[in-house]
Design a protein that fits this description.
The chain has 308 residues and is of the alpha/beta class. It has 11 helices and 14 strands. The strands form 3 sheets. It has a 7-stranded parallel sheet, with helices on both faces. The termini are far apart.
Length: 308
Amino acid sequence: MKQNNTPRFITDLSELTNDFDTFFLDMYGVLWDGSNFYPNVLNMLKYLKDNKKKIYILTNMTALKPSFVSSKEKKGLIQGVHYDDVITSGDVCAAALRQGLFEQLAQKEAYSYYVLGGANPALFEDVSAHETKNIENADILYLSSVQTEAQEDNFDHFLPVLNRALERNLPAVCANPDRFFMRGGKMLPAQGAVGKWYEEHGGHVVYFGKPNSVAFEFALQQTQSDPTRTVMVGDMLETDILGGHSAGLKTVLITQTGITGYLLQQGQTLTDIYQRQHVVPDYVKNKFGENILLERFFLMKGVNQYGI
């Protein structure tokens, strides 16, 4: 665990604006609940933008940037108004695929990959190999979403394929290291949970996205941000906070929404969570958009809850 550090509780992100020029923000659990934006989130984003802060959404979503921008714009999140840019783990993974990741893993030019779950086809647009529906013909296993509308509490239905992939010693690629996500008030397994299971049973997994250093290196390079003037805001210690610290960034843990909010509702304490994850954030805040002074500020300006 990070030693000699007691997180500072903040009520308003404006408390950090003198120290940081760039804000890296997680999506799920900080800004977005899976269906809608949390209350006052768009106002908070607009406030930071109006105060000349650079806002980058750094998410483990596997959707590529054009899809993200389009889908969230329909919900009121406008690029240029509320944020500068978005970097998804799908973008990072797609860049690696263009540079020959699958060829390196397969160790041959002609190969096939098997997609476990429902993957985004755009990820593979620049891949020369063919997708196979038969694990016996695969050279690489791609771990995708394990969830359907049924909201499975486990991924047991994939175990026969996973065990056969292990027997064949197939390398796996996972573009979302998150082990869990929230939907409808339930904490459900995500791609990262499958990746962890595969590793624990002897498999080799290549990850993209937080907390891996390549995700933060990619983000810092793309945004040309100074790490000493950049803060990472997230709801998960094992991805957002650990990854931010590893990249030399200060971090803010959101504690009343997302995964950490769920764990606290189940009776765990922050101290318990810190000890289990072996990392402590620099700052903690209840909710990203929660701020009485900011609400009064926008009320006086006549701006609605969507920041437009």
